[in-house]
Amino acid sequence: MKQSVTIYGKEKCPFTQAAVEAWTKRGAEVTYIDVIKRPDMMNKMLVLSMGERKIPVIVTDEGVTTGWQGKN
């Protein structure tokens, strides 16, 4: 079964794009949410990241990480 991953970020962020590419290469089913194009999702992202405005915010079955380095 493929792992499901949701990535919150913005189109012009190279770290967000790198995260999407990396998870896709791993074979994960990636849902990408651009919080600039979908401002209604910004609050959800902030709840998941405990208010931290660092992107990407990556949500997996194991939990939530923020930023390319995967800070929990």
How would you portray this structure in words?
- With 72 residues, the protein is of the alpha+beta class.
- It has one domain: Glutaredoxin, CATH 3.40.30.
- Helices cover 26% and strands 28% of the residues.
- The chain is built from 2 helices and 4 strands, in the order E-H-E-H-E-E.
- A 4-stranded mixed beta sheet has the order 2-1-3-4, with helices on both faces.
- Strand 1, helix 1 and strand 2 form a beta-alpha-beta unit.
- The longest helix has 12 residues.
- The chain is globular and about 30 Å long.
- The mean pLDDT is 91.
Key words describing this protein structure:
alpha+beta; 4 strands; 2 helices; 72 residues; Glutaredoxin; 26% helix
Quote the CATH topology.
Answer: Glutaredoxin
Say what oligomer this is: single chain
Query: Under the CATH scheme, which class?
Result: Alpha Beta
Average per-residue pLDDT, rounded, comes to 91
Question: Could you tell me the number of beta strands?
Answer: 4
What is the chain-wise order of helices and strands?
Answer: EHEHEE
For the sheet with most strands, the description reads: 4 strands, mixed
Unreliable spans: none
> Strand pairing plus helix content: what structural class?
alpha+beta
CATH-defined superfamily: Glutaredoxin
Q: Which architecture per CATH?
A: 3-Layer(aba) Sandwich
Shape: globular
Strand content: 25-35%
- Roughly how much helix do the residues carry, as a percent range? 25-40%
Strand order, sheet with most strands: 2-1-3-4
End-to-end gap: 25 Å
Please indicate the count of domains.
1
